[in-house]
Design goal:
By secondary structure, this protein is of the alpha/beta class. It has helices at residues 4-14, 23-36, 54-62, 72-80, 97-106, 116-129, 164-175, 197-215, 241-251, 265-268, 301-305, 407-411; strands at residues 18-22, 42-47, 66-69, 88-90, 110-113, 133-138, 180-186, 222-224, 258-261, 272-284, 287-292, 311-314, 337-341, 350-356, 365-368, 389-394, 397-402. A hairpin with a 2-residue loop joins strand 10 and strand 11. The structure holds ligand LLP.
């Protein structure tokens, strides 16, 4: 459990902004998932894109998790962290020839293919390597996932996967190829899903396709049901993990395939926070701003998806008194609601809008909740800002798992124009 005192201590010890992850809580999430699917052979391939810190991955490896990767470097991260190659899968609409070659050489469990052209490319590369490539095809079931349009992936107009008809033809082709070995089938309709029915509806379509393929003597071993389970950022109702598993298992009746699931956010989202420090308060006309030291480069979700993360405020005993001379005192009425904004030069750089927060002072802290997924992993160096440090809480103890960047790290790969 991460208490307020612990957060204060960590902010002092490591500085801010700071990502803190509760590994003990992550373990609980993994066990929730395992328990829910225990009736079947199943493998959790954690979606690295949510948070790919190596220590986190090693921890998940120790809990027997596999990895769902979307770039060859994610595959390499997973291997480096000790996730066995036979538990690693690799998806993505735009794998290059080199990506495919490396993935085949690394001999991972399978590649999830997203187009006919990609399949033919994989076949050629496998042939050159004298291998048969284990593959799965991502099927786009054309179901509305009812989530934010940027993270909805299972509709005809989305770039992901192939439709059911094309998938069938691809499986028949692959089944007849010496260099392709179709062993899985995949669907993933979106992220932050809060309704179960689009998932079961999709599973239903995929299972029907699987029965058709088995009748054609295709020897499929895995159904990869993707990720996407939403978490509670605010008051939204979310999918209960047991109902989710039951819903999938019900659709799978009569089918003897191992289940692969690819949760990301569910495993880490709620188990992480971003600590940030108040730098200033200001009031422009009737609008109040709290300016903090975290910005959209640290957490882009509010700016990109209008995501609303809960914010907790911690007043810190700083011994600092703000001395504002009478002349400069603002006589407009104090606004109870404020926007929490970062130092980046964009109006879109905000952490939260219009939230109720007491008058703050420099040095106070805000805790941005549910920031474990798609927080650090989407961070950047925009405005030449340094990426945050990351700390894990394991067995109640804190451990630095990523050093804060410094200026030298920032410019390390840049070469002088003049020499
Ligand atoms: N599998 C596939 C094929 C995916 O595309 C994704 C997420 C996942 C699994 C994991 O989904 P999860 O269980 O984490 O929902 N940056 C966005 C989320 C993008 C998700 C992309 N794909 C955000 O911050 O909300």
């Amino acid at each position: 459990m991460i208490t307020k005192d612990l957060l204060l201590y960590l902010a002092n010890k490591y500085g801010t902004p700071l990502y803190v992850y509760d590994f003990d809580e992550i373990k609980n999430k993994v066990f929730d998932f395992k328990r829910a699917f225990k009736a079947r052979k199943s493998l959790i391939c954690y979606a690295l894109k949510a948070n790919s810190n190596l220590s986190l991955l090693s921890y998940l490896a120790s809990l027997d998790c596999g990895a769902d990767c979307v770039s060859i470097n994610e595959v390499k991260r997973a291997l480096k962290a000790g996730i066995p190659k036979y538990k690693i899968i690799y998806s993505g609409v735009g794998k290059s020839d080199l990506d495919i070659k490396e993935a085949l050489e690394l001999d991972i469990l399978f590649l999830n293919l997203e187009s006919v052209e990609e399949m033919l490319r994989v076949e050629t590369i496998a042939k050159d390597l004298g291998k048969s490539a284990r593959i799965s095809i991502r099927v786009n079931p054309n179901v509305d996932a009812k989530t934010h349009p940027y993270i909805s992936t299972g509709l005809r107009e989305n770039k992901f996967g192939v439709n059911i008809e094309s998938a069938k033809k691809m499986y028949i082709y692959a089944g007849n190829s010496k260099f392709l070995h179709p062993i899985g089938i995949h669907f993933h309709i979106g992220s932050q899903l809060v309704e179960l029915s689009p998932i079961t509806q999709s599973a239903n379509k995929i299972v029907e396709l699987i029965f058709g393929l088995l009748a054609l003597k295709l020897d499929l071993k895995f159904i990869d049901i993707g990720g996407g389970i939403g978490i509670k950022y605010n008051d939204e109702k979310t999918i209960d993990i047991y109902s989710y598993a039951q819903g999938i298992l019900k659709e799978m009746q009569g089918l003897d395939l191992s289940i692969i699931c690819e949760p990301g956010r569910y495993i880490v989202g709620d188990c992480g926070v971003l600590i940030s420090k108040i730098l200033y308060e200001k009031q422009n006309e009737n609008k109040r701003f709290c300016i903090v030291d975290a910005a959209m480069n640290d957490l882009i979700r509010p700016a990109l998806y209008n995501a609303k993360h809960k914010i907790e405020y911690i007043s810190v005993d700083t011994n600092q008194k703000s001395h504002i001379p009478d002349l400069l005192k603002d006589n407009t009425r104090f606004q109870e609601y404020a926007d929490i904004v970062g130092p980046i030069c964009e109006s879109g750089d905000y952490i939260a809008k219009h939230i109720k927060i007491p008058r703050t002072k420099a040095g106070d802290l805000i805790i941005i909740k549910s920031a474990g997924a798609y927080g650090f992993s989407m961070s950047s160096n925009y405005n030449s800002r340094l990426k945050c440090a990351e700390v894990a809480i394991i067995n109640g103890k804190d451990k630095l798992i990523r050093k804060r960047e410094n200026f030298e790290d920032l410019i390390a790969n840049e070469l002088p124009y003049l020499n």
